[in-house]
Amino acid sequence: MKDLNWNIYFNDRYSQFQERLMALDLMPASEERTELLRNYVRELEADILTITRNKNEVSDLVKRTTPSKIREVSFLLAYRCSALNTMFYDHCSDSEIKQFATINEQLYNATQHMYERTNMAKGFLQTMPTHEKDSDVWIESKLEFWCDDASSVPKFAEDEYYGSDFSNMIAILSTIDRDFYHREGFDYIYPHSEIIDGKVVVRDDIVNVLDDGRSWSEGYLCHPKLSDIVICHAAHDICDHKSYSIPDLLRMNSFQVCIDIKIQSFHNSPCLR
């Protein structure tokens, strides 16, 4: 759990959540553990919605919530992620594995598209005329989740098993990631470029070296039922480096690739005295 205020960790409420999660992890897979995890998730989410206040509108969440409260929510989301991943690991269904394969392929194809279009932008950039006032020109590319509203998160038969309010939790997760932690999507490209003799030169090769045919099966993604799937880097980033659980990922069915060309110039006023 990165970037969190560790003072919160010693708060009695959050210490109790941590201790309960550790105890649940030690229990063998059983209906009893499933029920305890389900209740745990519901309790966490109730606290999250109490802090965020308006579950139907999260676009202004960071503006209307103090940084300390956002960090509290981040802790709760991290605990929720672990609990849902444990439930997935215990009882994932064949339809969930099929859905994972579909989303994984979607993310891989979107990543490949991002690299292809970034290379096209690189070609344009290197032939684009510059201005004498241009101090820097560069490309920024990223792959991110597109969460328009609750309809962006589909309903599945397994929703009752997990007991999560997926639509609101995923909206809160994506909003905090974007507006509070300013995380740059699930995959991104920032090739080094500079202006030399009035021409833009992009120094870096734009090649997807992260998806080289080997699977990013780490953490909870290292599951026997997922062993036949070459897990792409974007899926790994979502589930292993952020607080989205695998069940969250299965419900994230809309992603966007954004490619921007940025031009920077400075205009300084003289200091008059």
Topology, pairings included?
Layout: H1 12-26, H2 31-52, H3 61-64, H4 67-91, H5 94-127, E1 134-145, H6 159-162, H7 166-179, E2 187-189, E3 193-196, E4 199-202, H8 233-240, H9 246-250, E5 255-265
Antiparallel strand pairs: 1-2, 1-5, 3-4
Element string (H = helix, E = strand) = HHHHHEHHEEEHHE
Query: What profile does the largest beta sheet have?
Result: 3 strands, antiparallel
How many domains? The number is 1
Strand order of the largest sheet: 2-1-5
Low-confidence stretches: 1-6
Structural class: alpha+beta
* N/C terminus separation: 51 Å
**What's the β-strand tally?**
5
What is the number of helices? 9
**Shape annotation:** globular
How large, in whole angstroms, is the Cα Rg?
A: 22 Å
- Approximate strand percentage: 5-15%
Share in helix? 40-55%
The overall average pLDDT, rounded, is 87
Provide a concise account of the structure shown.
This protein has 273 residues and is an alpha+beta fold.
Report on the structure:
The protein is α+β, with helices and mostly antiparallel strands. The chain has one domain (6-265). The chain contains 9 helices and 5 strands. The strands form 2 sheets. A 3-stranded antiparallel beta sheet has the order 2-1-5. The chain has a two-stranded antiparallel sheet with strand order 3-4. Helix 1 runs antiparallel to helix 2 (31-52), helix 1 runs parallel beside helix 4 and helix 2 runs antiparallel to helix 4 (67-91). The longest helix is centred in the middle third of the chain and has 34 residues, at 94-127. It is globular, with a radius of gyration of 22 Å.
